[in-house]
Amino acid sequence: QRQLVESGGGLVQPGGSLRLSCAASGFTFDYYSIAWFRQAPGKEREGVSCIRSSDGTTYYTDSVKGRFIISRDNAKITVYLQMNSLKPEDTAVYYCAADSYYFCSGYGGRPADEFDYWGQGTQVTVSS
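The structure assignment produced for this chain is given below.
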């Protein structure tokens, strides 16, 4: 079964850290760029970060630059999103998505059906 499974979400105080994981199965992970998205209640989906399959180049939306770090471990077929200095506005459901064609180009604005696989999401809540 081809799928992505996110984990690592939870409740954290402002200023705290979480590490999200996106584990793949059933497909050749190395060939896919992986993006992280988030969606807060009442808001549109937002592209957070992306890591390119070909050379590991990383991309971040401005609001998380300097705080979040995306990385991948192809041997473990997992992509991570290390989130530091978390703020209440980071509260959202976080999703990962796999893309075999666009290599992160314009990832934040691409429609969902241009990604090959999506995870089910993991809730991140930043609150005191």
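Interim note for the steering committee: The chain has a mean pLDDT of 95. The two ends are 39 Å apart (CA to CA).
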